[in-house]
Amino acid sequence: MSAEAEIVQLLQDWAAAVRAHDLDGAVRGRSADIVMFDVPEPLQARGLDAYRDTWRLYFRDPGSRRFALQETQIVAEGNLAWVRALLLCTTDDAPAGRLTMGLRRIDGRWIVEHEHHSFPMPLAVAGD
Amino acid sequence: MSAEAEIVQLLQDWAAAVRAHDLDGAVRGRSADIVMFDVPEPLQARGLDAYRDTWRLYFRDPGSRRFALQETQIVAEGNLAWVRALLLCTTDDAPAGRLTMGLRRIDGRWIVEHEHHSFPMPLAVAGD
């Protein structure tokens, strides 16, 4: 399998786990030292325990049952990769969120070391 | 120079250009096809013209005069890299934003193909 195909599989398994509220599946393949920039506060969640808590929180949102990636781009070379996508993550039919991910392949297995999930702010709030 | 040292230089030059409201410097080293997930709407800005507009907007914010990266992590291998950092980007003394970046080295030069800038949402707004 190509690196891209391996990462497609990882992303598909992950999104399915999130939709199923399968907490172990949602955190599978994450680094013990993962740094998560999530949609809600805090500014960053460091480490697997804090990462797991971000999913516990999100599972309370009905949008989590529809969690899916759109317009995914995977850029991989050697043992490094990054991913960007839009996120279907609310009860709306249109994507509301954005995802960026940093991965490293360690001992032949892709590990997510960093995730960044966000919603854009309304222009008025952002200080326009 | 190592890949990491080259990217440190790119990030330092970029942040200095943003603080100086040097629009050409702020967009230097970006891909013609860059996809930007910015703090304010829209959901994504595609291409260099749309990317440039995100900086025109941000330069109206007095926080842009203090734009700086903190807790920067650079992960590079071969001709691929990703970066994460916290952003000092408001008039507050503490970082309020998060940055993730995807880069590729093309003809020996690092090119930013993707950026993701965001603020976390207050928990109440995020649906807690």
What does this structure look like?
The structure is a homodimer. Chain A has about 130 residues and is of the alpha+beta class. Chain A is built from three helices and six strands. Chain A has a single domain, classed as Nuclear Transport Factor 2, Chain: A (Roll). Helix content of chain A is about 25%, strand content about 40%. Chain A has a six-stranded mixed beta sheet with strand order 2-1-6-5-4-3, covered by helices on one side. At the A-B interface, strand 3, strand 4, strand 5 and strand 6 of A face strand 3, strand 4, strand 5 and strand 6 of B.
Keywords:
homodimer, 128 residues, alpha+beta, Nuclear Transport Factor 2, Chain: A, 6-stranded mixed beta sheet, 3 helices, globular
- Kindly name the structural category of chain A: alpha+beta
Radius of gyration of chain A: 14 Å
Q: What oligomeric arrangement do these chains adopt? A: homodimer
CATH topology title of chain A: Nuclear Transport Factor 2, Chain: A
The chain pair forming the largest interface, with residue counts per chain, is: A-B, 43 and 43 residues
Which strand order do you get reading across the main beta sheet of chain A?
2-1-6-5-4-3
Secondary-structure element order of chain A, N to C: HHEEHEEEE
CATH architecture of chain A: Roll
Helix content of chain A: 25-40%
Distance between the termini of chain A: 47 Å
Question: Low-confidence segments of chain A, ≥5 residues, pLDDT <50?
Answer: none
Give average pLDDT of chain A, whole number. Answer: 96
